[in-house]
Structure formats: C-alpha cells, structure tokens
Amino acid sequence: MSQPIAKYRPKRSQIVASVKPLKKEGSFGALASAAEEGLLHYAPVPSDDGINGAQVIRGKNGEFLALFKSSEDARPHDDGDMAIDHGLTPQESAIREVAAHRLDRKGFFGVPLTGFVDISYSGFQTGEVITESPVVVRRRSGTLQEFINSDGSAEDVSFARFPTQSVHRLAILDIQLLNGDRHEGNVLVQRSPRGIEKLTPIDHGLVLPRTLDKCWFCWLTWPQAKLPFEGEELDYIKSIDIDKEVRHLRSVGIDELALYNFRLSSLLLKRGAESGLTAYDIGSMMCRVKGLNIPSELEQFLHQARSVTSRMVEAGDHHNGDSIVGEMLRCKAKNFMERRNKHSQYHLLRNNDDDQIAMSQYPSSQRALQRVGMDCSRAIRRASSPLSSPLMRI
Question: Of 296, 295, 94, 300, which Cα lies nearest the Cα of 208?
Fold first, then answer.
C-alpha cells in the first residue's frame, strides 16, 4: 500500500518593512523605529479624513502611533470646486508640514512631531496566504507625524470653553505661517476633569504661501482672540528672532518668496503685539473677507508700496522711493483707523457656506497701528534693493 502524499502548505512570504527617516536623531528617530516595528504586525489603514492618502500606522501593541502622508499622491479638495487653489504641489505641502514642526522647536505650540521618511513595505499580515508570487516591495516618500490622541476637534466643542492661552498660541503660529487652512476641523481638543485643557494644531500643508491672498483663521470669530496678548505668549512674541527662524525654514526647503512673506507676517506680529494690538486686530489685517474678492489691508499696503517703488526705480531714485513707501504705510494706517473710529464700522466675517457670522469692531488705537506701519516700512527698506526685492514680484 502506497504512502499518502502530504498536503502542500505554501509558506507566507516574508514581510518587508522599512521606515527610513531623513534625520535619525532625537525623538523622531525613535518614532520611525517604532513605526517600522509596528508595520511588521499591522498594515497601515486610511485615516478618517483621507487627505493626501494619509494612513494611520499602529505600534507593535496595536495602538495608534503615527500618521503617514504620502508626498506622491494628489491632494483632494474637500469642498470640490469651492476649494481655494493654493498652488502647492504635494511635495511642497510635505515640506510645509515639516517646517511647521521645525518652527515649534520648543514645543510652545504643540505641533505634532513631524519629519520626512521613506517607507518600503510588502506582504503585511492581513491573513491571506501568498503562494508563488514574488515579494513586492512598495516604496513611498512623505511625512511621518506623531498621532495625537484627542477628544475631538474644535468643531465639536463650543469655542467659548477654549482657554485664552491656547487660542493665543494658535493665533501666533497661524499669523507667522500665514496659514491658509486653519478651520475648526484641524484643531484638536484635549479635555481634563477641569474642562478643555489645550488645543493642538494639525494639518500644516498649506502654510507659508507665496502670495498673501490665501490665509484664513477660524479663531477670528472666537472672543479670546480679541483679548490682548500677555504673560508667556507676549514674552514669546518679543523673543522671536526673525532672521534665525528664516535660516531655519530655508534649511527645510522653503523658497525665498514664501520666506519674504514670513518675514513680513512675523514683523507685523511682533510690532503689533508690542503696540497693544490683539490677535484679532492683526489677523483681520491679513485675511480677506470670506466670499468677497477684496484684498486684505496687508495686501493693499504692499500693492501701493510696489507701485511707488516701481516708479522710483524707473526714475533711478531708490532712496526717495523707500521714503515714500514708509510714508504711504503710515498714512494708510492713519486713514484706516480714522475711518474706523469715526464711523464705528463693523467687519463682517463669513465662511464659504455663510453659516458662521461674526460682527466685530476694531478697537485698536490710531497710534498703535501707525507704529506697525512705520516698522513694516523699515523692514521693506532693509530687505534688499528695490531692483531685486521680492516686493517687486508680489
């Protein structure tokens, strides 16, 4: 009697998982190593929002560990045709995600740990048996970001409960970065037994724009933004070293025109806060009214400055051109505040769906805003000669 033939059981293909960070030092190297170990046990799954093909990576014990955003996938627009075209490629958005974290070197804003990685993976343990097919290794580049456990987002909670300190820190970050995508959905909320403990900003792929017409801050409608900066927040603003931060952002890969806008917004933040302006005052000067194609106050300042500088360059009179730019900014600030104080005009802020309305008055003093205009004009004169200034290209 012949021996029975043993049933053939194909072996599972070997799992290949590699997470290579661009920089291995510090906490990010540990995060990348933990993600690599987790990929040997769990396949990544799409995140809830699915932006940029974002995938959640689990740790070896099954806990949510990190979020991977590929820089090779197209960015879908959540609002369809109503979405704003920010003119950034997926790779540029990835650079800006990392830049936001690099700007938060001391953890002042709570931006999640973020860095560049290359991920290679194949044959995840999903239960299927792979027979004679070769191991297929797929490689993707993008950003790896620490996963933040939260109790929802700002759109799930009344903004009246947010700590003023957290709102001010969020505002400082967004003003400096000219954030073009700060809505309630990308502000995470952490609770404690005493209430809302902190706000964590996420999704910074649309910061540091090349133009000044894209920024919008959801916190403009929050009452905390109309309170003056004080304490640690005011001290932080005063300590900002713009030149040092520009060099740091340049090393990440931010282009010069975006860096010029960063200089301007940082200067406006510093001089404005020192003069008593609130986050709302400064943000209102930077943002367009939603739904209306009207340039912001900052855009109007720079447009007039560019026109005057261009005429002076053509006439060969560079020095007087700089003087006229400074005088124009001072006069513009003075006239702007005189209109506000005389007529008590209100500023209407709407979102794309016209379902959020806030009527708010500009409370700033005329002298304070004049000082901002003077300091901005000095910054423009120091930037470079009018012939090569980025101001000429805005």
Answer: 94
Q: Please, what sign has the CA dihedral across residues 225, 230, 232, 237?
A: positive
221: nearest Cα among 167, 274, 298 = 167
Q: Determine the pLDDT at residue 121.
A: 81
- Taking the C-alpha atoms of residue 104 and residue 99, their distance in angstroms, rounded to an integer, is 9
Amino acid letter, residue 325: V
Q: What is the total residue count of the chain?
A: 394
pLDDT value of residue 298: 83
Stretch 104-118: mean pLDDT: 92
Strands 138-146 and 64-70, bridge-based pairing = antiparallel
Rounded to whole angstroms, the Cα distance separating 77 from 382 reads: 39
For position 103, what pLDDT does the model report?
94
Contact 57, 65 (CB under 8 A): yes
348: which 2 tokens?
């209407």
Instruction: Return the closest-CA partner of residue 283 out of 305, 260, 265, 261.
Output: 265
What pLDDT is attached to residue 6? 40
Rounded (10°) CA dihedral 31, 34, 40, 43: -50
381: which 2 tokens? 């004169």
- Single-letter amino acid, residue 322: D
Cα-Cα-Cα-Cα torsion 375, 376, 381, 383, nearest 10 degrees, comes to: 120
Predicted confidence (pLDDT) per residue in 4-34, tens digit: 444 334 344 466 778 888 776 678 999 999 9
Q: Is 94 helix (H, G, I), strand (E, B) or coil?
A: helix
The amino acid sitting at 382 is R
Distance CA 17, CA 177 (A): 35
CB 54 within 8 A of CB 67: yes
| Helix 279-286 vs helix 164-177: crossing angle, to nearest 10 | 30
Position 75, amino acid = R
Cα separations (Å) of 60 from 25, 31, 140, 146, 169?
21, 12, 21, 15, 34
CA neighbor of 272 nearest in space, from 175, 186, 361, 179: 175
**Tell me, what amino acid is at 323?**
S
DSSP bridge partners of 349: 358
Kindly report the average pLDDT of the chain as a whole number.
75
How far apart are the C-alpha atoms of 187 and 208, rounded to whole Å?
18
**Using one digit for the tens of pLDDT, what is the confidence trace for 259-293?**
988 988 898 898 888 888 899 988 988 898 876 77
